[in-house]
Design goal:
Length: 151
């Protein structure tokens, strides 16, 4: 689906798939796209968030959701488990729409440089109950400030 290009956008998407795999998730969602964007230093700097902090925040959201179901989860071992690769077709509808929007918002000439920025703007526009909206709120990212930095 994403070919073998090594553009910044491709690197972000592949990083998002790797983040989903590391978490043991079967599908790539918008929250994974945000983690993938944090592999892009310029975008991460604009968001004011580091990758490790975002991973911890997402883990905290998962634990809170499980507590709401009456399940208490202790500390998760730091040793990574071997999870299968997430297939490139296993995207949530929100993730697919965000990627398509980022692609359509750029031209063929500007896509390599602009698509990560467009993807970030698309994710910032998401609202609850989308998982990335919850993650953005958990990370206390100021949506308006980030949009102005990208303008």
């Amino acid at each position: 689906m994403f070919g073998r290009q090594k553009t910044p956008f491709h690197v972000v998407i592949m990083a998002a798939f790797e983040e989903a795999r590391l978490r043991g998730d079967r599908r790539l969602g918008t929250e994974h796209l945000l983690l993938g964007l944090l592999h892009h230093q310029d975008v991460a700097r604009s968001l004011g968030v580091d990758l490790e902090g975002a991973r911890v925040a997402l883990d905290d959201l998962d634990k809170a959701a499980l507590r709401m179901l009456g399940l208490e989860v202790g500390d998760v071992p730091k040793t990574p488990r071997k999870h299968p690769r997430v297939p490139s077709t296993a995207l949530t509808s929100s993730a697919r729409a965000a990627i398509n929007h980022a692609i359509k918002a750029t031209t063929g000439r500007t896509r390599a440089a602009e698509a990560p920025r467009q993807l970030a703007l698309t994710l910032l526009a998401q609202r609850r109950p989308d998982p990335v909206a919850q993650l953005i709120d958990q990370l206390m990212i100021d949506r308006a400030a980030v949009r102005s930095r990208f303008a």
